[in-house]
């Protein structure tokens, strides 16, 4: 996947996840689980394509990218649990948010540091 396409998929997926969480937590709309499922799949696919396009990345970048992929799978698991009315979906969302925040903030900081070194 090209960089521009990956960026668009990532941005749209992250926006869908935010809309889904707001819809589930505040408005209690049950169909928002489908939006979360699509957002989680897009988020995971954007990071999966990042792994394949950067084979010479450092070990820390690879680890953080894998953590972001796991966060995407937690989003998908939360959506599936919500669709099946399993009460553990809120806990999975919290875990996904923690993994997503840590990996994305760390990857952004590392990207900015490598940009400054060049």
> What does the largest sheet look like?
none
Please state the structural category: mainly alpha
Low-confidence stretches: none
Reading the helices and strands in chain order gives: HHHH
Which word captures the global form? elongated
Strand proportion, as a percent range, falls in under 5%
Number of helical regions: 4
> Any idea what the radius of gyration is?
15 Å
Whole-number average pLDDT?
Answer: 90
Q: What percent of residues adopt helix (DSSP H or I)?
A: over 70%
Number of beta-strand segments: 0
Protein described:
The two termini are 25 Å apart. The longest helix is centred in the C-terminal third of the chain and has 29 residues, at 89-117. The relative contact order is 0.13. The chain has helices spanning 3-25, 32-53, 59-83, 89-117. The protein is an all-alpha fold and 118 residues long. Helix 1 runs antiparallel to helix 2 and helix 2 runs antiparallel to helix 3. It is elongated and about 50 Å long. It is built from four helices and no strands.
Please outline the helices and strands.
Blueprint: H1 3-25, H2 32-53, H3 59-83, H4 89-117
Task: Summarize it.
The protein has helices spanning 3-25, 32-53, 59-83, 89-117.
Properties at a glance:
118 residues; 4 helices; 84% helix; mainly alpha; single chain
């Amino acid at each position: 996947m090209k960089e521009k396409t990956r960026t668009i998929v990532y941005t749209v997926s992250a926006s869908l996840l935010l809309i889904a969480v707001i819809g589930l937590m505040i408005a209690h709309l049950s169909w928002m689980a489908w939006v979360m499922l699509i957002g989680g799949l897009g988020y995971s696919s954007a990071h999966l394509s990042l792994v394949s396009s950067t084979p010479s990345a450092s070990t820390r970048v690879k680890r953080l990218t894998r953590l972001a992929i796991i966060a995407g799978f937690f989003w998908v698991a939360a959506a599936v649990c919500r669709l099946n009315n399993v009460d553990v979906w809120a806990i999975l969302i919290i875990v996904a948010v923690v993994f997503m925040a840590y990996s994305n903030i760390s990857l952004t900081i590392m990207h900015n540091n490598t940009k400054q070194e060049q």
